[in-house]
Amino acid sequence: MTASDAYAKAGVDQGAADSAVAGLVRALGAINLERPSAQVPLPGHYASIIKFDETNGIAFSTDGVGTKLVVAEELGKFDTVGIDCVAMNVNDVICVGAEPLAMVDYIAVDKADPAVCEEIGVGLARGAELAGIEITGGELAQLGDLVRGVDVSGACIGRVALDAIIDGSAVEPGDVVIGLPSTGIHSNGYTLARSALEGIGLDEDPEGRLGRTLGEELLQPTQIYVKPIVALLRSEVEVRGLAHITSGGTENLLRLVADVGYEIDDPLPPQPIFELIQERGGVSEEEMSRVFNMGCGFCVVVPAEDENAALELLRAYYPEARRVGRATEGPRRIL
Question: Is 70 exposed, middle or buried (0-12, 13-18, 19+ CB in 10 A)?
């Protein structure tokens, strides 16, 4: 199959989604405030920033768990999806150099089920602890006419000094890209994964390749990278770029501002689940790397002279962290 064929066949047309987002952006660009904008220009970045005063900014992000919730519903197990909701938001906020502070959640259901909502709350609380944030409120919407089952999303805010914003503009050719391992699929690409793995029971471990049941593998919570990245930002290391590797894979590095390319010559090893998806779904290598994180959930870009110091700090959290590539002279592409 050609790139994005398998994902589109499974029900997600990424090209159509990109066009839809472009339409939204055009419409929102017509907002007339009748006052100067307080927004810090970060087009295409992971989070948005509003100037709070002359020296401080507030970072915002919003995201959800996606169709990973279909797996949770099939297993009747909802106590980890709250971690995913927190992770997808806080991991974006730290990409601009901000420290996440708090979240609100939004849970949409066809019919309120106290037991399910409590399980979701258990995961949200655990995710908040892992990220070092508060969850200050939220909304439970009963939408039986629109929703079948449950959907979980949220929004996060963080703080950042305006002179400490990281947008990737400082990245230079020769800078080092450090990869931090994922815990598996995280919360992207589940429509393709479920399509590719159709016919395998969630209580099975096909050929013993996963080391646990498929259901357990698919519900592995998304890794939360806040504490090591905040520690790195507070260190003497010069952090020039931060990228949350979600849908889009390492091409997400191109969301950083600098006019450079990136060569990923020593990638982190993908977990067995990715090979299983590729085999069962007949998915091309190119599409796999565009849809999934392929074992690397987060990237940090630092000057070559700071590589050792950055690795020493990050390996205290992730022993498998390593240099996976480098920034190159343009054009802006991933090799």
Answer: middle
